[in-house]
Write a structure and sequence with these properties.
With 261 residues, the chain is mainly alpha-helical. Helices cover 77% and strands 2% of the residues. The chain has 2 domains: 55 residues; 162 residues, no CATH class. The longest helix is centred in the C-terminal third of the chain and has 39 residues.
Length: 261
């Protein structure tokens, strides 16, 4: 099979299936079919290094396969942190919050070992090109989300100090890993290369924030402008005495109609 055709059928089409399955799960009642489609598509993407080894797109599947276990562990920890707190449904025991935090720290530690040990994701005998993009972006994203969520809980929430402390712990951990990676060479990646990709990741995240903020501002301005251009109904004059009498007569006829029949 031609490498281009193979990549289209065994990588890009399954990747489309992931998005299609997510859309079916979120927009239709039949979530089982949607999840099944997404699972099959994701599995085909992850095994693409074996199904289409000649395609350069398989670097993504190789990285996803390497990140599978840490991501599952982290999702498990986040589930315990969220549903062990003050939630109205499916609340877990309070101990699940700190257990979930420990599990998340374990997952992040596993990702750190990929950077500083021989477990670094490889592709065709070299470091996976997407790993060096994912790792600093993940660290910055985690720091940003943890910081914003921690401040929001302290300023807007009530009795959320313990939740804020857990988020602050994650933020400090990832900040420490980021500083360490900037100063200490990894198993394959140098500290200088990490710093270069870190600045690029910072620009990407800043661009996302500015783009999303600009979109919200433009949307707000459009709605505000549209509402101001609409003609509001003018104030009407109060009913006259004849109109009051007519209304009273209609009400009387309808109330008394049942008695006359």
């Amino acid at each position: 099979m031609d490498s281009t055709l193979g990549a289209a059928l065994l990588f890009w089409l399954p990747l489309l299936m992931v998005a299609l399955g997510a859309w079916i799960s979120s927009s239709m009642n039949n979530t089982t079919i949607g999840r099944s489609i997404s699972f099959i598509g994701l599995a085909m993407v992850m095994i693409s290094p074996w199904t289409i080894p000649s395609s350069d797109s398989t670097a993504v599947g190789q990285l996803l396969l390497n990140l599978l276990i840490p991501v599952i562990i982290m999702c498990w920890g986040l589930y315990g942190m969220v549903f062990g707190g003050h939630v109205p449904v499916q609340r877990l025991p309070p101990s699940s919050r700190w257990i979930g935090l420990a599990i998340c720290i374990t997952a992040i530690t596993g990702l750190a070992l990929m950077h500083w040990s021989i477990m670094t994701p490889m592709w065709r005998g070299e470091i996976n090109p997407y790993w060096i993009v994912f790792w600093p972006t993940f660290l910055l994203f985690t720091i940003s989300i943890s910081s914003v969520a921690c401040v929001s809980l302290l300023t807007l929430g009530t009795n959320r100090l313990d939740s804020a402390l857990r988020l602050a712990t994650l933020g400090l951990l990832t900040a420490g890993l980021t500083i360490s990676a900037m100063l200490i060479d990894g198993a394959i990646t140098s500290a200088e290369a990490f710093r270069e990709h870190l600045w690029m990741a910072s620009a990407d995240i800043l661009g996302i924030i500015l783009g999303a903020g600009s979109a919200i501002i433009v949307f707000t301005i459009v709605i505000w402008t549209y509402e101001n251009t609409q003609q509001h109904p003018s104030n009407t004059t109060p009913p006259s005495a004849e109109e009051y009498e007519h209304v009273a007569a209609v009400i009387a006829d309808n109330i008394g109609g049942g008695e006359d029949e």
